Protein backbone atom coordinates (compact mmCIF):
# COMPACT_ATOMS: atom_id res chain seq x y z
CA UNK A 1 0.00 0.00 0.00
CA UNK A 2 1.18 3.51 -0.80
CA UNK A 3 1.39 6.37 1.67
CA UNK A 4 -1.96 8.13 2.01
CA UNK A 5 -1.53 11.92 1.58
CA UNK A 6 -2.39 13.96 4.66
CA UNK A 7 -3.18 17.67 5.11
CA UNK A 8 0.51 18.59 5.40
CA UNK A 9 1.32 16.98 2.06
CA UNK A 10 -1.63 18.67 0.37
CA UNK A 11 -0.62 22.01 1.88
CA UNK A 12 2.87 21.70 0.39
CA UNK A 13 1.44 20.96 -3.07
CA UNK A 14 -1.18 23.75 -2.91
CA UNK A 15 1.35 26.31 -1.69
CA UNK A 16 3.85 25.35 -4.43
CA UNK A 17 1.17 25.60 -7.12
CA UNK A 18 0.03 29.02 -5.86
CA UNK A 19 3.58 30.36 -5.73
CA UNK A 20 4.10 29.13 -9.31
CA UNK A 21 0.85 30.91 -10.30
CA UNK A 22 -0.97 27.66 -11.08
CA UNK A 23 -3.86 28.81 -8.92
CA UNK A 24 -6.57 26.94 -10.83
CA UNK A 25 -4.64 23.71 -10.30
CA UNK A 26 -4.27 24.55 -6.60
CA UNK A 27 -8.05 25.02 -6.31
CA UNK A 28 -8.56 21.65 -8.03
CA UNK A 29 -6.22 19.95 -5.51
CA UNK A 30 -8.12 21.73 -2.71
CA UNK A 31 -11.37 20.04 -3.78
CA UNK A 32 -9.66 16.69 -4.41
CA UNK A 33 -8.29 16.58 -0.87
CA UNK A 34 -11.76 17.19 0.57
CA UNK A 35 -13.30 14.52 -1.64
CA UNK A 36 -10.72 12.14 -0.19
CA UNK A 37 -11.77 13.06 3.34
CA UNK A 38 -8.80 15.29 4.17
CA UNK A 39 -9.94 18.39 6.08
CA UNK A 40 -8.17 21.62 5.02
CA UNK A 41 -6.40 23.68 7.69
CA UNK A 42 -5.91 27.43 8.06
CA UNK A 43 -2.57 26.95 6.23
CA UNK A 44 -4.42 25.46 3.25
CA UNK A 45 -6.82 28.38 3.09
CA UNK A 46 -4.09 30.99 3.55
CA UNK A 47 -2.09 29.63 0.61
CA UNK A 48 -5.15 29.62 -1.63
CA UNK A 49 -6.36 33.06 -0.53
CA UNK A 50 -2.92 34.55 -1.11
CA UNK A 51 -2.68 32.87 -4.53
CA UNK A 52 -6.15 33.98 -5.61
CA UNK A 53 -5.53 37.56 -4.46
CA UNK A 54 -2.27 37.74 -6.40
CA UNK A 55 -4.13 36.49 -9.47
CA UNK A 56 -6.73 39.22 -9.09
CA UNK A 57 -9.47 36.78 -8.09
CA UNK A 58 -10.54 38.71 -5.02
CA UNK A 59 -14.17 37.53 -4.96
CA UNK A 60 -13.07 33.87 -4.99
CA UNK A 61 -10.66 34.58 -2.14
CA UNK A 62 -13.44 36.25 -0.14
CA UNK A 63 -15.60 33.19 -0.79
CA UNK A 64 -12.94 31.01 0.84
CA UNK A 65 -13.07 33.17 3.97
CA UNK A 66 -16.83 32.56 4.14
CA UNK A 67 -16.12 28.85 3.67
CA UNK A 68 -13.74 29.01 6.64
CA UNK A 69 -16.46 30.60 8.76
CA UNK A 70 -18.93 27.85 7.85
CA UNK A 71 -16.38 25.14 8.70
CA UNK A 72 -15.36 26.96 11.90
CA UNK A 73 -11.72 27.18 10.85
CA UNK A 74 -10.16 30.11 12.67
CA UNK A 75 -8.64 32.73 10.37
CA UNK A 76 -5.40 34.45 11.41
CA UNK A 77 -3.45 37.57 10.50
CA UNK A 78 -2.08 35.94 7.31
CA UNK A 79 -5.64 35.22 6.11
CA UNK A 80 -6.64 38.86 6.36
CA UNK A 81 -3.36 40.34 5.14
CA UNK A 82 -3.76 39.11 1.57
CA UNK A 83 -7.43 40.02 1.42
CA UNK A 84 -6.99 43.56 2.74
CA UNK A 85 -4.09 44.21 0.37
CA UNK A 86 -6.18 42.91 -2.56
CA UNK A 87 -9.13 45.14 -1.57
CA UNK A 88 -6.89 48.21 -1.48
CA UNK A 89 -5.38 47.41 -4.88
CA UNK A 90 -8.91 47.04 -6.26
CA UNK A 91 -9.73 50.48 -4.85
CA UNK A 92 -12.23 48.99 -2.40
CA UNK A 93 -11.10 50.75 0.78
CA UNK A 94 -14.50 50.37 2.42
CA UNK A 95 -14.32 46.57 2.18
CA UNK A 96 -10.71 46.65 3.41
CA UNK A 97 -11.82 48.57 6.51
CA UNK A 98 -14.66 46.11 7.09
CA UNK A 99 -12.17 43.23 7.02
CA UNK A 100 -9.98 45.17 9.43
CA UNK A 101 -12.93 45.62 11.80
CA UNK A 102 -13.65 41.90 11.57
CA UNK A 103 -10.05 41.20 12.58
CA UNK A 104 -10.40 43.41 15.64
CA UNK A 105 -13.69 41.73 16.57
CA UNK A 106 -11.96 38.34 16.35
CA UNK A 107 -9.12 39.64 18.58
CA UNK A 108 -6.57 39.21 15.77
CA UNK A 109 -3.83 41.83 16.00
CA UNK A 110 -3.05 43.46 12.62
CA UNK A 111 0.62 43.50 11.60
CA UNK A 112 2.69 46.14 9.81
CA UNK A 113 1.67 44.83 6.36
CA UNK A 114 -2.03 45.28 7.12
CA UNK A 115 -1.58 48.77 8.57
CA UNK A 116 0.56 49.79 5.58
CA UNK A 117 -2.09 48.50 3.16
CA UNK A 118 -4.86 50.38 4.96
CA UNK A 119 -2.84 53.59 5.15
CA UNK A 120 -2.07 53.30 1.45
CA UNK A 121 -5.75 52.79 0.64
CA UNK A 122 -6.83 55.78 2.72
CA UNK A 123 -4.19 57.96 1.08
CA UNK A 124 -5.26 56.89 -2.41
CA UNK A 125 -8.84 57.70 -1.38
CA UNK A 126 -7.79 61.21 -0.31
CA UNK A 127 -8.52 60.50 3.37
CA UNK A 128 -5.14 61.74 4.54
CA UNK A 129 -6.03 62.80 8.07
CA UNK A 130 -7.70 59.44 8.65
CA UNK A 131 -4.55 57.75 7.35
CA UNK A 132 -2.46 59.75 9.83
CA UNK A 133 -4.81 58.72 12.63
CA UNK A 134 -4.32 55.10 11.55
CA UNK A 135 -0.57 55.60 11.97
CA UNK A 136 -1.07 57.02 15.46
CA UNK A 137 -3.38 54.15 16.35
CA UNK A 138 -0.98 51.45 15.18
CA UNK A 139 1.79 53.04 17.24
CA UNK A 140 -0.49 53.11 20.29
CA UNK A 141 -1.03 49.36 19.80
CA UNK A 142 2.71 48.69 19.78
CA UNK A 143 3.05 48.14 16.03
CA UNK A 144 6.21 49.94 14.91
CA UNK A 145 5.94 51.81 11.57
CA UNK A 146 8.65 51.48 8.94
CA UNK A 147 9.94 53.58 6.04
CA UNK A 148 7.13 52.25 3.80
CA UNK A 149 4.52 53.54 6.26
CA UNK A 150 5.98 57.02 6.28
CA UNK A 151 6.75 57.13 2.56
CA UNK A 152 3.12 56.30 1.82
CA UNK A 153 1.85 59.10 4.05
CA UNK A 154 4.42 61.66 2.88
CA UNK A 155 3.54 60.89 -0.73
CA UNK A 156 -0.17 61.30 0.03
CA UNK A 157 0.26 64.68 1.71
CA UNK A 158 2.71 66.02 -0.88
CA UNK A 159 0.46 64.90 -3.73
CA UNK A 160 -2.35 66.90 -2.11
CA UNK A 161 -0.14 70.00 -1.96
CA UNK A 162 0.39 69.61 1.79
CA UNK A 163 4.18 69.42 1.73
CA UNK A 164 4.41 71.05 5.15
CA UNK A 165 2.48 68.13 6.66
CA UNK A 166 4.75 65.79 4.72
CA UNK A 167 7.75 67.44 6.35
CA UNK A 168 6.17 66.99 9.79
CA UNK A 169 5.95 63.26 9.07
CA UNK A 170 9.56 63.27 7.88
CA UNK A 171 10.64 64.84 11.19
CA UNK A 172 8.51 62.33 13.09
CA UNK A 173 10.12 59.37 11.33
CA UNK A 174 13.59 60.78 12.03
CA UNK A 175 12.63 61.15 15.69
CA UNK A 176 11.66 57.47 15.70
CA UNK A 177 15.05 56.56 14.27
CA UNK A 178 13.67 55.63 10.85
CA UNK A 179 16.00 56.78 8.08
CA UNK A 180 14.46 58.30 4.99
CA UNK A 181 15.46 56.80 1.63
CA UNK A 182 15.76 58.24 -1.88
CA UNK A 183 11.99 57.97 -2.38
CA UNK A 184 11.33 59.92 0.83
CA UNK A 185 13.53 62.84 -0.20
CA UNK A 186 12.37 62.86 -3.82
CA UNK A 187 8.76 63.01 -2.67
CA UNK A 188 9.41 65.96 -0.38
CA UNK A 189 11.49 67.82 -2.97
CA UNK A 190 8.75 67.34 -5.56
CA UNK A 191 6.08 68.32 -3.02
CA UNK A 192 7.76 71.62 -2.23
CA UNK A 193 8.38 72.34 -5.90
CA UNK A 194 4.67 71.82 -6.62
CA UNK A 195 3.72 74.54 -4.13
CA UNK A 196 6.42 76.89 -5.40
CA UNK A 197 8.77 76.61 -2.43
CA UNK A 198 11.96 76.00 -4.38
CA UNK A 199 14.24 77.24 -1.62
CA UNK A 200 12.83 74.66 0.79
CA UNK A 201 13.17 71.99 -1.91
CA UNK A 202 16.85 72.85 -2.28
CA UNK A 203 17.30 72.66 1.51
CA UNK A 204 15.78 69.17 1.46
CA UNK A 205 18.21 68.20 -1.31
CA UNK A 206 21.15 69.50 0.74
CA UNK A 207 19.97 67.49 3.73
CA UNK A 208 19.71 64.47 1.46
CA UNK A 209 23.35 64.92 0.50
CA UNK A 210 24.45 65.51 4.12
CA UNK A 211 22.66 62.31 5.16
CA UNK A 212 24.48 60.35 2.42
CA UNK A 213 21.21 59.30 0.84
CA UNK A 214 21.89 58.50 -2.83
CA UNK A 215 20.30 60.74 -5.44
CA UNK A 216 18.90 59.36 -8.68
CA UNK A 217 17.84 60.77 -12.03
CA UNK A 218 14.43 61.67 -10.56
CA UNK A 219 16.07 63.83 -7.88
CA UNK A 220 17.80 65.99 -10.47
CA UNK A 221 14.89 66.07 -12.91
CA UNK A 222 12.54 67.44 -10.24
CA UNK A 223 14.50 70.69 -9.95
CA UNK A 224 15.05 71.18 -13.69
Automatic annotation (TrEMBL):
Family per similarity comment: Belongs to the PPR family. P subfamily.
GO molecular function terms attached to this record: mRNA binding
Protein name, UniProt field: Pentacotripeptide-repeat region of PRORP domain-containing protein
Pfam families: PPR, PPR_2
Domain of life where this protein originates: Eukaryota
Keyword S-adenosyl-L-methionine: no
Alphabetical list of Gene3D superfamilies matching this protein: Tetratricopeptide repeat domain
InterPro entries according to UniProt: Mito_RNA-Proc/Resp, PPR_rpt, TPR-like_helical_dom_sf
Keyword annotations from UniProtKB, A to Z: Repeat
PPR repeats: 6-40, 41-75, 76-110, 111-145, 146-180, 181-215
Family annotation (NCBIfam families): PPR (TIGR00756)
Amino acid sequence: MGCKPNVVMYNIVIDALCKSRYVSDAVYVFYVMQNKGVVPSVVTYNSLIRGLCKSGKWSEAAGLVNDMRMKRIEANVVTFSGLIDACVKEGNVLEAKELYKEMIQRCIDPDIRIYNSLINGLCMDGRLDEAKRMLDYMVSKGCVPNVVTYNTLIKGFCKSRRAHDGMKLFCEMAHRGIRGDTFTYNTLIHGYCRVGKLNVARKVMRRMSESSVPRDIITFNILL
